[in-house]
Amino acid sequence: MIIDTLQNKNLYHFGPAWNKAFTFLDSLTPQTAEGKYTIEGDDIFAIVMCYSTGTPETSMLESHRKYVDIQTVLDGAERFECANRDDLIIEEPYDATKDIELYQRSSPGRSSANITPGTFIMLYPHDAHMAALMTDNTPKQIKKVVVKIKADLLETL
């Protein structure tokens, strides 16, 4: 997992797929329409969505095997809980067609972070994560984007 500001994207050297994802992210505003955006076929795409934040009881811990997620908020704020998927009990087995596995939340996540406009969280396949959580005790409407990059496209040093 990486949590940082969008302005620090160039500190990470993951190759062309990373650069394409952040070029797309740089083009977004809070007025960007909801929907799916193709960046590079099924290899890199994004989903812009709106929803209300809630409690852990209204969300699920999830992980993905094929894709890395880069998530940021365009308007509002949300809290994430994260844990290593190997430490969790599977609630719903991996569904390859949706690239998702769901887990029980037996205790609060091992890590948590608030994501606001200008910050991002990158989640690797081993990072189980729960998004859409309130940053205070009040549900709020947010607009966010999830960029999905096939994990094998990211270069490593």
Explain what this protein looks like in three dimensions:
By secondary structure, this protein is mainly beta. It has a single domain, classed as Sandwich (Jelly Rolls). Helices cover 7% and strands 48% of the residues. It has 1 helix and 12 strands, in the order βαβββββββββββ. It has one helix spanning 16-26; strands at 2-5, 35-40, 44-52, 61-63, 67-75, 78-84, 90-95, 100-103, 111-115, 119-123, 127-133, 141-150. The two termini are 16 Å apart. 27% of the residues are buried. The mean pLDDT is 95.
* Whole-number count of domains: 1
Strand order of the largest sheet: 1-10-5-12-3-2
Let me know the average pLDDT: 95
Roughly what percent helix? under 10%
Output the keywords.
single chain; 157 residues; mainly beta; Jelly Rolls; three-stranded antiparallel sheet; 1 helix; 7% helix; globular
